[in-house]
Amino acid sequence: MQPKIKNLLVMLLVMFTLVGTITAIMTLANLTSSQSFVNAWISSFTFAFLVLLPLGGVIFATISKLINRFLVSWSNLQKNVTQAVLMALVMESIMALVTMFNTHTYESLSQYSSLFFNSLLYALPVGLTFSCLMVLVIKPKLEKVLTNQSAI
Question: What SS3 state is found at 152?
Fold first, then answer.
């Protein structure tokens, strides 16, 4: 198998796991007793995987460029941890909104606020863990592989 395809499959598997886990946690946090978990989760997961994942790639690249541009004096570790925290906050917030709107009908702004923060707080530790894993472990390995392939 070609290295590019292998790397793409590994990244898709990581993203599949990340999105699946976080949407499952958020769906469980927002589920009412009358709702089916599987139906609510599949709907949230599908939207997150097909729409938010590509958007997350763009946000990741943008945050990376902004951090490298404005935080020049910081070490790579500081930049990577900052990027991980910002990515987790941004993506978890978007996914919390999507999951909340997907599992509930409009009743009140206070209910939506409560559901949003409930989803966010349940999934944020997992999101921070995955995000740190992405920028501290996977991103450097991917950059190394891409650098080695471009040298060939």
Answer: coil
Q: How far is Cα 134 from Cα 123, in angstroms, rounded to an integer? A: 16
Domain hosting 132: range is: 3-151
- Total domains present in the chain: 1
Per-position b or e across 91-128, b if 16+ CB within 10 A of its CB: bbebbbbbbbbbbbeeeeeeeeeebbeebbebbbebbb
Give the pair of three-digit tokens for residue 119. Answer: 């989803």
Taking only the tens place, the pLDDT of each residue in 86-139 is 988 998 888 888 777 777 776 788 888 888 888 888 888 888 888 888 878 877
26's tokens:
């958020």
- Across the chain, what does the average pLDDT equal? 83
